[in-house]
């Protein structure tokens, strides 16, 4: 849409992006800003406010004050406002997508798709919320032995209060609205802490919530370095729920959070098991797409291929041939492989690759790096002694480990502390279900690569990969608590006999 004067107020006169509190876009009293670099150019692209702890307090105070009235707002009105947010996101999608290209090097087409998918998620949440949150229960006391029908229990769902939402860099719009929309539909207020990379796209996204006419103070956003305000945010006494998507930081948060309800997705080492009877063409295409889409920077990326030895040569050859056709370059050109998010990320990926090289892995494609741009790398003959057999690269590197049987593959999968998703390729549905049952991961895809969506499907990790379950209905259920109101009737009227 034109111009987007719609977004004008989110920037200060000097160009730095503001933070949002109590219905207003503000500059921080710290007088400081934090730079956001472009992963492709490694040059500073944006500046955002460096909020203080006092400003964090203001955000929570505004949220707490606004939440009480919002909790009394009828469900249909909450849904109507969320539909307005979704419509505004579609109308003003392109500037948001442009930020994703510059902040996280997401290919242009994928960036726009993320915004539209997020609007769809908001619409679905509004409709699902009307159904799920509108349901209650009436229990009668005489269903329990020895009781008469003199008590009626009205069971309802009430909001938790203030939700702290912390999305990750790789989907800073989609995984923000997957937290905001259920929280708001359930009657909560929100304080959003966007990721350092993705914060500007997050600001554009939040403006859609503001312009839709939500009550002031209901949605607030603080920006700045996690090292300075992160612990203060997650330990704040006004927090009634934490919804976090990210890495190891989430484990530390969960240990400190006490009795605060949490919804956490902390990454995975998603294993792809390829059986001897698999459709090798199908498996190769899935490994290629699952392993290298958005340069492997997805929690649901294929991060380890466990292939039965009889078909390993055929699979490796087909995947290698596909890797050679991937376009490597800049996100503006919609290349398949674009720069990873930061130099530190690129260095970590390179460390895993070098460890594998030193321990005897075979490179089916050459390793090449220029700045943050890493060419797609396919490793074969990976062994359990290599770090990459266990650790999550979060980059365009796919390791292949040859196994004697599917049972050996499952055993390796289950030995990892990361257990988000996995997949299995076989033509035998009975074998597929048996392997899925044996894999101790949150989701198993049969004859397809791991994937988070559709967004209404349950999405969860086991062990160090998460707490709780996402997916629209599950998120709605997590954002409320059960309340019982017991009506006591005249007992004499219900005396037994």
TrEMBL record:
EC number(s) from the headed UniProt entry: 1.2.1.9
GO cellular component: cytoplasm
Annotated localization: Cytoplasm
Superkingdom field: Eukaryota
Domain Aldehyde dehydrogenase intervals: 25-484
Pfam families: Aldedh
Molecular function per GO: glyceraldehyde-3-phosphate dehydrogenase (NADP+) (non-phosphorylating) activity; lactaldehyde dehydrogenase (NAD+) activity
PROSITE patterns xrefs: ALDEHYDE_DEHYDR_CYS, ALDEHYDE_DEHYDR_GLU
Protein name listed in UniProt: NADP-dependent glyceraldehyde-3-phosphate dehydrogenase
Species in which this protein is naturally found: Raphidocelis subcapitata
């Amino acid at each position: 849409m034109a111009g987007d004067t719609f977004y004008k107020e989110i920037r200060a006169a000097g160009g730095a992006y503001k933070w949002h509190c109590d219905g207003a876009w503000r500059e921080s009293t710290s007088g400081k800003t934090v730079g956001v670099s472009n992963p492709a150019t490694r040059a500073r692209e944006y500046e955002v406010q460096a909020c203080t702890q006092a400003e964090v307090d203001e955000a929570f105070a505004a949220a707490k004050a606004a939440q009480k009235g919002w909790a009394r707002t009828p469900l249909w009105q909450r849904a109507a406002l969320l539909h307005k947010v979704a419509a505004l996101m579609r109308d003003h999608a392109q500037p948001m997508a442009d930020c994703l290209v510059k902040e996280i090097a997401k290919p242009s087409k994928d960036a726009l798709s993320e915004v539209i998918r997020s609007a769809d998620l908001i619409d679905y949440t509004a409709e699902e919320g009307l159904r799920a949150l509108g349901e209650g229960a009436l229990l009668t006391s005489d269903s329990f032995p020895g009781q008469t029908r003199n008590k009626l229990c009205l069971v309802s769902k009430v909001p938790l209060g203030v939700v702290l939402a912390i999305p990750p860099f790789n989907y800073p719009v989609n995984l923000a609205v997957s937290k905001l929309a259920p929280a708001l539909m359930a009657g909560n207020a929100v304080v959003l802490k966007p990721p350092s990379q993705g914060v500007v796209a997050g600001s554009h996204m939040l403006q859609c919530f503001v312009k839709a006419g939500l009550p002031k103070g209901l949605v607030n956003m603080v920006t700045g370095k996690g090292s300075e305000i992160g612990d203060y945010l997650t330990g704040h006494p006004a927090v009634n729920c934490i919804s976090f998507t990210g890495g190891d930081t989430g484990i530390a948060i969960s240990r400190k959070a006490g009795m605060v309800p949490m919804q956490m997705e902390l990454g995975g080492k998603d294993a792809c098991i390829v059986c001897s009877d698999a459709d090798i063409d199908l498996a190769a295409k899935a490994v290629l797409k699952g392993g290298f889409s958005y340069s492997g920077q997805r929690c649901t990326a294929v991060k380890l291929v466990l292939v039965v030895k009889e078909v390993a040569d055929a699979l490796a050859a087909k995947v290698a041939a596909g890797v050679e056709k991937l376009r490597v370059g800049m996100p503006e050109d919609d290349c398949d492989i674009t720069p990873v998010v930061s130099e530190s990320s690129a260095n970590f990926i390179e460390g895993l690759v070098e460890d594998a090289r030193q321990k005897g892995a075979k490179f089916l494609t050459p390793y090449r790096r220029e700045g943050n741009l890493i060419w797609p790398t396919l490793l074969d003959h990976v062994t359990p002694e290599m770090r990459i057999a266990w650790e999550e690269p979060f980059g365009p590197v796919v390791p292949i480990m040859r196994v004697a049987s599917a049972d050996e593959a499952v055993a390796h999968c289950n030995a990892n502390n990361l257990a988000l998703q996995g997949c299995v390729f076989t033509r035998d549905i009975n074998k597929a279900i048996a392997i899925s049952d044996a894999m101790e991961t949150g989701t198993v895809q049969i004859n397809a690569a791991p994937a988070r969506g559709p967004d209404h499907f349950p999405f969860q990790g086991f062990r160090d990969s998460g707490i709780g379950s996402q997916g629209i209905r599950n998120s709605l259920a997590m954002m409320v608590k059960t309340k019982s109101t017991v009506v006591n009737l005249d007992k004499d009227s219900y005396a037994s006999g």
